[in-house]
Amino acid sequence: MTSQTEQLWARAKKVSPGGVHSPVRAFKGVGGVPSFIKSAQGPYLFDEEGNRLVDFCMSWGPLLLGHQPPTVKAAVAEALDRGWTFGTCESYSLELAELITQNIPWVEKIRFVNSGTEAVMSALRVARAATGRNKILKFTGCYHGHVDSMLVKAGSGLADMPSPDSAGVSPSVAGDTLVCPLDDEAALQTVFDCHGDDIAAVILEPIPANNGLLPQRKDWLKNLEALTRKNNSLLIFDEVISGFRMAFGGMAERLGIAPDMVTYGKVIGGGFPVGGYGGKAELMDWVAPTGPVYQAGTLSANPVAMVAGLETLRLLKDEAPYAALEQKGVELENMLKEICQQQGREDIQLQREGSLFWSVIHGQGNSPKMVRNPDDIPAVHAESYKDLYHRIRHHGVYLAPSAYEVGFLSTVHEPEHLQMLATALASSLQEISAGA
Ligand SMILES: *Cc1c(COP(=O)(O)O)cnc(C)c1O
Fold first, then answer.
1. How far is the CA of 145 from the centre of ligand 1 (A)?
2. Strands 234-238 and 199-204
3. Which residues pair with 396 in a beta bridge?
4. Helix, strand, coil share (%) of the chain residues, nearest 5
5. In the annotation, is 143 catalytic?
6. Residue 436 — pLDDT band, cuts 50, 70, 90?
7. β-pairing, 44-47 with 152-153?
8. 133 partner at 20 to 30 Å CA-CA among 11, 219, 400, 401?
9. Catalytic residue selected from 183, 184, 238, 260
10. Is the link from the previous residue into 289 a cis peptide, with omega within 30 of 0?
11. Which SS3 state, helix, strand or coil, does residue 341 take?
């Protein structure tokens, strides 16, 4: 007999590539059949089989206030009653833009789009126009959405031509992308020595969180900032995950580094499809209709999505839950570390920054080690995560179905929910050591 989920999965695979509309949802990284979710509330997901799972994936980051926060839900319902798209000016996007520009000094103007990918694509276009340069420098292990020029990673060594990371990306597009390893001053210096006068912008996730969580040294980030300034390149912070999550002003605020441009997504739409790119007015005024950089969108600044973003950001501004989120992060980190120690699994290294967490499995008997660069993630990690993932899900906790995706804490995760993850981990490690 096949389960309800297996039936849905078989149908989905017939009508969509891999059965999904975004690749990681297919569970390729962990194997098995994905959960089909029927509903969600607060910190919980409810699947088609009637299971309740504590959610630490939170739709990959947007739901900093959990599923269905009442104020956001009420505002969205009210907005729906007034119509859901007008295709002309309205006050929702104005209020959201004012809230952001009044509270984030390095964002003097902002343009809303529909996704993080669009935000990045548009910001890069502005950077090229404003500097009259062509090359963009990115870092291995940083994800910037699926725009062609960002689907590139380094070949073997800096001297190589960058090669596309996806089929269908033209080598000539890839050729304008320079790629550098994270946490490596010398490599950065070399790239600037060779290409400094043709680098339009350097783009990075100031806390890389798409290839595991790879906390960067502040010195390294400061040095990067200095090099971009010295070479008249623009500094773009991709804060699609970190914006409004690590602080209202994102990592830029935490680090005290003001980027020239910043890209937002995820939290900015409160779970609806919104992205945004912003920065100094003189840069943003390159964008049409003020300037010659074309960028448009039929459903951009969709009123319902804008209201969800506005209510979410208002709440974050008024209640400033950041210290509490940090505290939750610390608690969870300590709980999980203690479990690993008790179970004799000191090889599991917990990495955390604010409300983002990730563990890297170095393999039994090995010592834990801080990982700042994707090359330092051991091969055993992905293999070990598969087994651990399914055991933890079986114990009622939903983590991202990939060894390279981080965990997301939200304001609705209470101590009892952190405890549920800790207990699920303890039981899973016990089963593993018992060979069960
Ligand atoms: C998720 C993400 C993107 C892409 O955003 P989408 O809305 O999925 O297009 C870009 N950059 C970073 C840092 C992200 O985490």
1. 5
2. parallel
3. none
4. 45, 15, 40
5. yes
6. confident
7. unpaired
8. 219
9. 238
10. yes
11. helix
CATH dotted code for 4-64+321-434:
3.90.1150.10
Question: How far apart are the CA of 326 and the centre of ligand 1, in A?
Answer: 23
DSSP classification of residue 115? S
> Domain segments of the chain: what residues?
4-64+321-434, 70-319
Q: What are phi and psi of 265, to 5 degrees?
A: -170, -160
State the DSSP code for 29.
Answer: T
Contacts of 245 (CB under 8 A, 6+ apart): 61, 64, 266, 267, 354, 355, 356
CB 238 within 8 A of CB 275: no
Residue count (the chain) = 436
Report whether 64 contacts 411 (CB < 8 A).
Answer: yes
Q: Are 250 and 242 in contact (CB under 8 A)?
A: yes
Question: How confident is the model over 295-342, as pLDDT tens digits?
Answer: 999 999 999 999 999 999 999 999 999 999 999 999 999 999 999 999
CA distance 309 to 329: 24
Question: C-alpha distances in angstroms, 283 versus 237, 277, 303, 429, 431?
Answer: 14, 11, 26, 52, 56
Q: Are 41 and 412 in contact (CB under 8 A)?
A: no
Question: Is residue 70 packed enough to be buried (19+ CB in 10 Å), middle (13-18) or exposed (0-12)?
Answer: exposed
Q: Read off the pLDDT of residues 112-168 as tens digits, 9 standing for 90 and up.
A: 999 999 999 999 999 999 999 999 999 999 999 999 999 987 444 444 456 678 888
Quick one: CA torsion of 21, 23, 29, 33, rounded to 10 degrees?
A: 20
Identify the CATH number of the domain defined by range 70-319: 3.40.640.10
